[in-house]
Task: structure prediction
Amino acid sequence: MQARYYDPILGRFYGNDPVGFQAGTGHSFNRYAYVANNPYAYNDPNGEWLNFAIGGALGALEDIAFQGIMMALGAQDEFSYSSVAMSTGLGVATSGVSAYAQGGRLAMAAGKLGKKILGKGDDVAKKGLPKNPDDLKKSGYADTSHPEAAKRGHRTFENSDTGDKVRFDKGKSGANGYEGKDHYHRSNPGATGKKDQYLDKSGNPCARGCDASHLLPGD
Amino acid sequence: MNILSFHESTVTKFLTEQNNFVIGLEDVSTDCSSDKVEIVVEGCSKILVDSVPAVDSSLRMPCADGEVLTLELSEEKVFVLVEWNDFSSGTSFTQSYEVNGSKIQTFII
Result:
């Protein structure tokens, strides 16, 4: 892997740097020099390229990829050039070690994005809300019901990956209208009050108590 | 006038005053045109919040909006499950209340 050999006494490589002269980097004019004559700041184990440049590029790429995923997840509104600059600087300073270290957050974000994409094709999206609310748990929903409410047939389920939150209300025998039928309500994450508290089966905001706020199994 | 259901009604008043507990509701399902109801539990003797005796017997609305999931009335007891909503922060939580008293009155407003 070593592109050329280095004489530690001379402080010079035997061969010239195959990368060649880099415009804007005066020290690269001497292609027998080691890391721009600054071994305190940089290193170049394979003799071809200054690791700080690769490190900077890795840092920038990791940050761009991470920001892209966060924007796709809806967790970030705008692209931050200052964040890229900071990650590039960290990559330069650590010869890319920071990029490897930050790879963990990138992997986690990618995993979340994957789950979100797959979540769109889950059973609830394909087949609608289940007849048995417990089946929601097979589709990534957690039962967050209040114990007294659950005893009376009011169950709450939340999907942390998609942000979907639904309440199941068990139909009461002898009751009229929707109260006599098993139904769901889907929370509107952008609700401003009871007038737009829920979402109808098409995903449009609707008011508490209106017919459209009642979703039946299959919706 | 008959009250058909309290399910999905909106809490507009929720407080204890002079040893009485008052809960005001709108959008109550009735068999007449009125849908506003006030329930007063007189002479409160026991208040349970989430099945635990209330530390502070002066109940207040914890959020500006509340939706009734279940409201059960008997001669001396009101049991109500409320989903409280704070729309500004996008959060909600459910609490149960059991209020015992010497007399319960229901007013159609």
Q: What stands out?
A: The two ends of chain B are 12 Å apart (CA to CA). Chain B has a mean pLDDT of 91. Residues 3-108 of chain B form one domain. Chain B has one domain: 3-108.
